[in-house]
């Protein structure tokens, strides 16, 4: 095992807890805990938002998907970044000016409806858990890959560190922690990639898609995971069973394994190949472009800006920081095609970022050090995203389930944190075979079909009513929720139903908008009487000080 | 203290709060705060200007990025074209889309702030 990994992980955990404890000195009131007393500067805030947003799905999952499926999945990073543009264009400044605290608060401010508030609470908790479970799972899988330890310990370790940090420091501490973790994650991918590209140059630039198909760059032993059929590049087939050890010499072609879904040759290199149909691509684009604004842990950050204009600038900086980060995972996926093709046989492509430095640079000190660096970055990814999610879910549980109003005690907030952490931690231990990156995509689809229409119509359309909004959320968000549960728990589907259920955003988002508009027009007399004052508050610049 | 002590103590100006510094009669602000038809029209104008800006820029992104899957499906030869030795789709999605998104965002922040300045100027001019 790599001797630098454990010290690296210990340093990340210690620095995280240390910054959290340092922040504790400033956290005095409940408001400090929840939104950092709204006094965080835009650059700190932007780094913190980016640090919180770049989760395991971005740090490990994108490179793994690129390694496996090629150009079609580049829509994931593009969509993850473009979500911030949609947030900037339609939501950022008015949301900050609304003065709302959480998404349920926004329902209260804009539509004065306690029922809608409860409905929003349910969705915040559902999306939060849906997003938190795969983070903890990813932590467990990384722990297994790197240290050989048990999956449960990895998931529980990250869960406990995150819970303690949120319960003790709240968001003020989290702001500094998240900002530190953005730069850690960027460094952890950017520094190794320089050495990897230099190594690729030194190896005489091996082709990414050689005409004969991918080949092993070094002698490799692969342990077969499941009974499968291997297909060689010449069409010959061979049966293997679980546990078999297969040895390949450098230069041997990589056989295709029947149980692992991956694309090869032109299908990998050119768009439209694989199972990425046009419908699935557009559904993915819609979910990621519009889903970001509905993620509870992203929104709660905007309340920490001092005013609307700074919320807008913060979002722009986030767009830049996130875009900068997403240039890197693609390179890992592409280089993984050359240096770690065995992952295409085992199917554990999510590990490409962790394994690539040692595979390409050899097992010397440089390779091991860089391997430890990317592992530390992966840990930062789990820690920061789960901290942010937990803060926002705990905030909602605190205000809406425990019915503490703004004067609630710090002890209640700690109780809310432990409550909201325990469910996903238990789930992550018992549901270990869920597909990580797919679940994250589904969380985006639910957010895009529930909170996106609520926010966009609530901010820009005077005639939205509480009944219309509730009907839209129930129809669109409910349909997306059902699709998620069917995908995760139900039987495997084929053909058109499979496409509609696995990538639901293309029909659930328009459905939510349609039902919301029609429902509001049908209940036109329920438009809040103070809508003029609300619109003024959402859109007028603070400099007028009305 | 009575009027007889006038020479003894110096007068001290007491400012109770920021609010009192605002001129008492301010027609534009009163229009806004009291929801008169003029105030409503001013706010509606601002909302419409900001929404039109946001929709125009989303249209730019929609045609710039959203049309790509369709383009690749309709004209597969575009996917095979190369830019700097890299296949065009990889270059467009993996590299160029991010500065493009940032550029659109930068333009939005600039113009949205200008809309707000125009709105503020209208209010101030009426004072």
Question: What is this structure, in a nutshell?
Answer:
The complex is a heterodimer of chains A (about 550) and B (about 130). Chain A has about 550 residues and is mainly alpha-helical.
Instruction: Output the radius of gyration of chain A.
Output: 24 Å
Low-confidence stretches of chain B: 1-7, 17-24
Terminal CA distance of chain B = 38 Å
- CATH homologous superfamily title of chain A: Sodium/glucose cotransporter
CATH class of chain A: Mainly Alpha
How much of the sequence lies in strands of chain A comes to under 5%
The largest pleated sheet of chain A is described as: 3 strands, antiparallel
Count of the domains of chain B:
1
CA distance, first residue to last residue of chain A: 63 Å
The strand order across the widest sheet of chain A is 3-2-5
Helix count from the secondary structure assignment of chain B: 5
What does the main sheet of chain B amount to? 2 strands, antiparallel
Strand segment count of chain B? 2
Number of helices of chain A: 22
Low-confidence stretches of chain A: none
Report the radius of gyration of chain B as a whole number of Å. 28 Å
How are the secondary structure elements laid out?
The complex is a heterodimer of chains A (546) and B (127).
Chain A: H1 5-24, H2 30-35, H3 42-53, H4 56-69, H5 75-90, H6 92-98, H7 103-111, H8 114-147, H9 151-202, E1 220-223, E2 228-231, E3 237-240, E4 245-248, E5 256-257, H10 266-269, H11 278-291, H12 296-302, H13 308-339, H14 343-346, H15 352-361, H16 365-401, H17 410-430, H18 436-460, H19 466-489, H20 495-502, H21 505-522, H22 531-539
Antiparallel strand pairs in A: 1-4, 2-3, 2-5
Helix pairs in contact in A: 1-9, 1-16, 3-9, 3-13, 4-13, 4-16, 5-11, 5-13, 6-13, 6-22, 7-8, 7-18, 8-9, 8-16, 8-17, 8-18, 8-19, 9-13, 9-15, 9-16, 9-17, 11-18, 11-21, 12-16, 13-15, 15-16, 16-17, 18-19, 18-21, 19-21
Chain B: H1 27-33, H2 37-66, H3 68-74, H4 76-80, E1 82-83, E2 86-87, H5 88-125
Antiparallel strand pairs in B: 1-2
Helix pairs in contact in B: 1-2, 2-5
């Amino acid at each position: 095992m790599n001797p630098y990994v454990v010290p690296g992980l210990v340093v990340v955990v210690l620095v995280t807890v240390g910054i959290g404890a340092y922040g504790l000195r400033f956290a005095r009131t409940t408001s400090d805990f929840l939104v950092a007393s709204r006094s965080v500067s835009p650059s700190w805030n932007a780094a913190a938002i980016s640090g919180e947003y770049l989760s395991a799905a971005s740090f490990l999952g994108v490179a793994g998907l690129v390694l496996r499926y090629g150009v079609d999945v580049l829509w994931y990073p593009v969509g993850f970044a473009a979500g911030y543009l949609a947030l900037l264009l339609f939501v950022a400044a008015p949301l900050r000016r609304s003065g709302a605290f959480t998404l349920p608060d926004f329902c209260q401010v804009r539509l004065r409806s306690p029922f809608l508030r409860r409905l929003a609470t349910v969705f915040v908790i559902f999306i939060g858990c849906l997003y938190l479970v795969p983070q903890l799972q990813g932590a467990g899988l990384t722990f297994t890959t790197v240290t050989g330890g048990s999956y449960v310990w990895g998931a529980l370790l990250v869960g406990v560190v995150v819970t303690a940090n949120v319960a003790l420091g709240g968001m003020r501490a989290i702001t500094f922690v998240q900002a530190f973790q953005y730069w850690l994650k960027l460094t952890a991918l950017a520094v190794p990639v320089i050495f990897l590209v230099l190594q690729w140059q030194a190896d005489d630039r091996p082709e990414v898609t050689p005409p004969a198909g991918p080949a092993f760059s070094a002698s490799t032993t692969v342990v077969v995971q499941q009974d499968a059929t291997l297909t060689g590049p010449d069409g010959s087939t061979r049966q293997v069973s679980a546990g078999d050890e297969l040895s390949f010499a450098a230069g041997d072609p990589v056989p295709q394994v029947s149980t692992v879904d991956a694309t090869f040759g032109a299908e990998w290199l050119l768009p439209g190949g694989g199972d990425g149909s046009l419908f699935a691509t557009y559904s993915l684009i819609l979910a990621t472009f519009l889903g970001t604004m509905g993620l509870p842990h992203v929104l709660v950050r905007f309340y920490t800006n001092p005013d609307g204009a700074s919320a807008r600038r913060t979002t722009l900086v986030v767009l830049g920081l996130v875009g900068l980060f997403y240039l890197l995972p693609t390179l890992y996926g592409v280089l993984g095609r050359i240096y770690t093709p065995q992952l295409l046989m085992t199917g554990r492509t999510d590990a490409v970022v962790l394994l690539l430095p040692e595979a390409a640079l050899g097992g010397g000190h440089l390779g091991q050090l860089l391997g430890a660096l990317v592992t530390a970055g992966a840990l930062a990814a789990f820690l920061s995203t789960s901290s942010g999610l937990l803060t926002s879910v705990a905030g909602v549980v605190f205000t809406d389930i425990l019915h503490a109003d703004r004067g609630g005690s710090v002890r209640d907030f700690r109780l809310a944190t432990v409550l909201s952490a325990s469910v996903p931690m238990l789930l992550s231990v018992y549901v270990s075979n869920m597909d990580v990156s797919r679940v994250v995509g589904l969380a985006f689809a639910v957010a895009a079909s529930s909170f996106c229409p609520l926010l966009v119509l609530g901010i820009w359309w005077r005639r939205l009513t509480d009944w219309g909004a509730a009907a839209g959320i129930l129809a669109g968000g409910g349909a997306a929720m059902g699709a998620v549960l069917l995908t995760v728990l139900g039987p495997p589907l084929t053909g058109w139903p499979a496409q509609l259920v696995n990538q639901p955003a293309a029909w659930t988002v328009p459905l939510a908008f349609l039902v919301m508009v029609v429902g509001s027009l049908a209940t036109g007399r329920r438009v809040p009487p103070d809508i003029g004052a609300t619109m003024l508050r959402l859109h007028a610049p603070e400099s007028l000080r009305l | 203290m009575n009027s007889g002590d006038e020479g003894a103590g110096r007068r001290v100006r007491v400012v109770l709060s920021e609010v009192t510094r605002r001129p008492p009669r301010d027609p534009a602000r009163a229009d806004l705060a009291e929801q008169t038809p003029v105030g409503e029209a001013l706010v509606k104008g601002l909302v419409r200007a900001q929404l039109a800006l946001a929709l125009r820029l989303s249209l730019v992104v929609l045609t710039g990025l959203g049309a790509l899957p369709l383009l690749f499906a309709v004209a597969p030869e575009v996917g095979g074209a190369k830019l700097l030795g890299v296949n065009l789709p990889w270059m467009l999605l993996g590299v160029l889309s991010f500065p493009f998104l940032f550029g659109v965002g930068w333009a939005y922040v600039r113009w949205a702030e200008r809309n707000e300045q125009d709105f503020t100027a209208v209010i101030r001019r009426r004072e």
